[in-house]
Amino acid sequence: MYVVCVKISVLPDRVQEFMEATLDNARGTREEPGNVRFDVLRAVDDPARFFLYEVYKDEGDFKAHQQTEHYLRWKERVAPMMAQPRVGEKYGALFPEPWT
pTM above 0.90? Predict the structure, then answer.
């Protein structure tokens, strides 16, 4: 499995708009054949801080995701909402394996 973790800080006055755009992207992503999981998390101690946990069958599925209409729409829409550039990290899953 190919895992992408994205840390995002949003401008406080844009949080609601960010959540709407991000949930639209998450719903679209969950429909992709190569997506295994897409979680949208919000920090308990900072309502303007988010974490996206994305799991794909392989790196090619993630790259295909980056070409989808819903992702490109999200990327453009949320760009002006960022308090700082988002940080994405990629991982290979060790456990559980295999994912079911």
Answer: yes
Length, in residues, of the chain: 100
The tokens describing 34, both together, are: 């190569």
Q: What is the pLDDT of residues 75-99, one digit of tens each?
A: 999 999 999 999 999 999 888 766 6
**Separation CA 77–CA 3 (nearest Å):** 23
Show the DSSP H helices in the chain as ranges.
15-30, 59-65, 69-78
- With the CA atoms of 64, 83, 79 and 86 taken in that order, what torsion angle do they form, in degrees rounded to the nearest 10? -20
CB atoms under 10 Å from CB of 10, counted, come to 24
The whole-angstrom separation of Cα 14 and Cα 97 is 38
Of 15, 8, 1, 94, which Cα lies nearest the Cα of 54? 1
* Spatial distance between the Cα atoms of 45 and 65, rounded to a whole number of angstroms: 30
